[in-house]
C-alpha cells in the first residue's frame, strides 16, 4: 500500500512542549472565522486565557489569548500578541445541569459546538484523518482520564441515544459506555463522512455527531482545568508538540528539524486534503492537528492544464461524484452549475486531485466553488 494512504498510528515518539518563554516570535491569533469581533486593541495588555474575540450572534467559538502579553496589532483576520508578564485570567465556570448552558459554556471556552445536537448518535473518532496526523494515539493512551471527563460532560449536554468509538484495526482503545467499531486504517476511512457510514451503515444520516479525539481532549481539559482553549497538541513530522494557539508555523517546522528549500510546501493538515500556508508567520488555530512538509521535488505540482477526460477522478471519488465536471464549471466561474453535480456532498478528501492524470487542482476548484456558493448563506444561517 502506498504510505500516503496508511492511517496506521505511528509509534509514540517525543512530545515537545513549547513554553511561552521559548517563543522567539509574537503569536498570531487567527480570526479566520468570518464574523468574530475583537475585544482588544493595539497596545493593550492581555492575560493568558482572556477572551479577545467573540461572535456577537453566539454561534461561533470565542477566541482567547494563549499567553500573557501585549497586543501589537489587531486586524480583521488576526490579532498579534507579544509574550510579556504572567497575567492569568480568572477560571471559567461551567454549568452542569442545563444542556443549552453547557454548550454555551463550551463555545465561550473556544470549542466549536455548531455540529452538536441533542439526542444524537455520538461517535468518538480516534482514527487519524490522514497519514502522519496521528496525535490521537498519545491523547487516548496518556490522557484517557481527561478524555473520559470530556465524554461525561458531552453526554450530559447532548443526552445521546447511542455512543460509539471508532478505532483503527488492531487498537484496543476504549471509552466508558461507547461501543467499539474497528476501522480499516486506509485513507479516507478516518474522515467523518466515512466514519459515519462504517459505524451506522448509512450515508450521512441525520442525527449523527462525530467528535474527533483531539476535540474530546480539548473539552475534557477545558472542563477539568476551568480554562479556555489556549494550547493544543499538534503533530509535525515525527514530533508531537504541546504548544500555545497562535504559535507560528515556521517555529514549529524549525523545532521539528526541517530545513526548508525553495519549492517546498508547508501544509496545515495532511498531504491529500490539507491547505498550504502562504507564510511561515501563519499562526496555528485551535483546530489544527498537524503540519505536513512536502518537498518540492517529491510530488508534481498541480497546474491549470485541460481535463483529458480519462474519468480517473470519478472512479476514485468515495462520494461517487463527478469532480471533472465540477472543476470545469468552477474553473470558468460557473459556480451555480456545480449544484447540478451535487457539490455539497463532496467532503474534500482530495483523492480526485491526487489521481488526476492532468494534475489539475481539482480540490482547489471545488473549495473555490463552495466558498462562492455557500459561505455567505452558511454564515447567515448560523446567525438565525
TrEMBL record:
Pfam families recorded: Fer4_10
Domain 4Fe-4S ferredoxin-type positions: 298-328
InterPro entries in the record: 4Fe4S_Fe-S-bd (IPR017896), 4Fe4S_Fe_S_CS (IPR017900), Ion_transpt_RnfC/RsxC (IPR010208), Nuo51_FMN-bd_sf (IPR037225)
Any one cellular-component term (Gene Ontology): membrane
Keyword Transit peptide tagged: no
GO terms for MF: 4 iron, 4 sulfur cluster binding; electron transfer activity; metal ion binding
Sorted UniProt keywords: Iron, Iron-sulfur, Metal-binding
Top-level division of the source organism's lineage: Bacteria
Name assigned to this protein: Electron transport complex protein RnfC
Annotated source species: Desulfovibrio gilichinskyi
Amino acid at each position: 500500500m502506498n504510505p500516503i494512504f496508511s492511517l496506521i498510528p505511528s509509534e509514540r515518539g517525543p512530545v515537545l512542549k513549547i513554553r511561552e518563554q521559548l517563543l522567539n516570535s509574537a503569536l498570531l491569533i487567527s480570526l479566520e472565522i468570518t464574523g468574530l469581533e475583537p475585544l482588544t486593541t493595539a497596545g493593550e495588555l492581555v492575560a493568558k486565557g482572556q477572551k479577545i474575540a467573540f461572535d456577537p450572534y453566539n454561534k461561533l467559538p470565542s477566541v482567547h489569548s494563549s499567553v500573557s502579553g501585549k497586543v501589537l496589532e489587531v486586524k480583521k483576520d488576526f490579532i498579534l500578541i507579544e509574550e510579556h508578564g504572567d497575567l492569568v485570567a480568572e477560571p471559567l465556570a461551567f454549568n452542569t445541569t442545563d444542556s443549552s448552558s453547557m454548550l454555551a459554556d463550551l463555545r465561550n471556552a473556544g470549542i466549536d459546538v455548531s455540529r452538536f445536537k441533542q439526542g444524537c448518535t455520538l461517535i468518538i473518532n480516534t482514527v487519524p484523518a490522514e497519514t502522519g496526523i496521528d496525535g490521537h494515539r498519545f491523547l487516548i493512551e496518556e490522557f484517557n482520564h481527561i478524555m473520559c471527563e470530556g465524554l461525561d460532560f458531552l453526554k450530559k449536554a447532548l443526552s445521546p441515544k447511542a455512543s460509539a468509538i471508532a478505532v483503527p484495526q488492531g487498537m484496543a482503545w476504549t471509552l466508558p459506555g461507547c461501543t467499539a467499531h474497528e476501522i480499516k486504517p486506509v485513507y479516507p476511512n478516518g474522515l467523518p463522512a466515512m466514519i459515519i457510514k462504517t459505524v451506522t451503515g448509512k450515508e450521512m444520516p441525520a442525527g449523527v455527531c462525530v467528535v474527533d479525539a483531539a476535540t474530546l481532549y480539548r473539552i475534557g481539559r477545558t472542563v477539568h482545568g476551568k480554562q479556555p482553549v489556549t494550547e493544543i497538541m499538534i503533530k509535525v513530522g515525527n514530533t508531537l508538540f504541546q504548544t500555545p494557539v497562535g504559535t507560528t508555523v515556521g517555529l514549529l517546522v524549525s523545532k521539528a528539524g526541517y530545513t526548508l528549500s525553495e519549492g517546498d510546501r508547508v501544509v496545515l493538515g495532511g498531504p491529500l486534503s490539507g491547505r498550504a500556508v502562504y507564510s511561515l508567520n501563519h499562526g496555528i488555530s485551535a483546530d489544527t492537528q498537524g503540519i505536513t512538509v512536502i518537498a518540492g521535488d517529491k510530488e508534481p505540482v498541480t497546474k491549470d492544464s485541460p481535463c483529458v477526460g480519462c474519468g480517473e477522478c470519478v472512479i476514485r471519488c468515495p462520494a461517487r461524484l463527478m469532480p471533472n465536471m465540477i472543476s470545469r464549471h468552477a474553473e470558468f466561474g460557473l459556480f451555480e452549475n456545480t449544484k447540478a453535480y451535487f457539490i455539497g456532498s463532496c467532503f474534500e478528501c482530495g483523492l480526485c486531485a491526487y489521481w488526476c492524470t492532468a494534475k489539475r487542482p481539482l480540490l482547489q476548484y471545488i473549495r473555490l466553488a463552495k466558498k462562492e456558493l455557500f459561505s455567505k448563506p452558511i454564515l447567515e444561517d448560523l446567525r438565525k
